[in-house]
């Protein structure tokens, strides 16, 4: 049976858990104009921030985004994008992947965890994130191609630690940087969802509601539990009609419809991750005692049977 290891798990906790920096830090690039770094590795999410200067993020199919000192952007992949000193720069693009090329000339120096003292107009710090599974893909669906967060937020303190860590090579550096980048990504997404005039996904705002937020936490902490509207309403200390009305207003669907969709997301991930698990095993893990009832629910939500989904996902 699936359950969370966190007593106070929320929707964001669940969705971001599969987004982790793991040995994927590009490092610190010290740049003097003109420059043009082109990121071609196809990472689902890439975080970029600059120190001591400014530049432009140029996506493949979107408008350029200015990036100022200590500002942060998150770029959604897998399309390539560039970081340039100015739009229309005369610099020749340098292709960057997990190990960025180091040109003989042109002002661009780049190596993972490498630093050289001297003058530079901009230091670029980049972290690329793999995104694993169906669960975290739901987070990506809520994000634009490029999101930008101003300096001065909670991520600034993390950025100071990142800048210090990339300045010299040290044992265990990659692990430290991975953890710092994870922390910085969480801070960046929080601030973007909470920015003035934001239109965050329904679940983000609903988490702060005393009625709906409590019900969401319970369903995410124990999705396989035999939840009813009455049980969820008791947990939130309201009537069933109050919960049903409030949930539909904030989430756009009834509580048990949301629960079914969430269970099917978990099931889709289990079908791929646990190749030895039978359909009955997966059904039981997400709260279904009857594999036939589970298969019918899965096909209704996902459009294919569990077996068809597994074959297509693992092909």
Automatic annotation (TrEMBL):
Q: Where is the HTH araC/xylS-type domain?
A: 213-312
| Tagged with keyword RNA-binding | no
Against InterPro entries, the record matches this protein to: AraC_lig (IPR032783), AraC_XylS_family_regulators (IPR050204), Homeodomain-like_sf (IPR009057), HTH_AraC (IPR018060), HTH_AraC-typ_CS (IPR018062), Tscrpt_reg_AraC-type_HTH (IPR020449)
Q: Which Pfam families match?
A: Cupin_6, HTH_18
Q: Give the keywords, sorted.
A: DNA-binding, Transcription, Transcription regulation
SUPFAM superfamilies to which the protein is assigned, alphabetical = Homeodomain-like
Bilayer-crossing regions: none
Coiled-coil zones? none
What name does this protein carry?
A: AraC family transcriptional regulator
* Species per Swiss-Prot/TrEMBL record: Prauserella alba
| Lineage of source species | Bacteria, Bacillati, Actinomycetota, Actinomycetes, Pseudonocardiales
